[in-house]
Amino acid sequence: MKPGIHPAYGPVVFRDKAADFAFLTRSTLTSDRTITWEDGNAYPVVDVEISSASHPFYTGTARVLDTAGRVERFERRYGRGPAR
After folding, report:
1. Do 22 and 14 contact (CB within 8 A), yes or no?
2. Secondary structure (3-state) at 47
3. Of 22, 13, 9, whose CA–CA distance to 44 is shortest?
4. Which runs of consecutive H residues, i.e. helices, occur in the chain?
5. pLDDT in tens, 28-53
């Protein structure tokens, strides 16, 4: 790799405040804010909107929509429109 053209790659804590969940990983993202991790070291922290701890797919709260059923329900409710 060419020196000086790649962003710095180092440890970063990603924190999901909604689920009170955080994990330490390596990333090119940085932040001015820091957090003291379980090992006693301070790392940059990046707040995320959603993570595996709060995403409906991973938590098992995802709803499956039946698109074919919705069309049939619409036709039952409002009837089939006039033929064009």
Report:
1. yes
2. strand
3. 13
4. 56-59, 67-78
5. 998 999 999 999 999 999 998 877 77
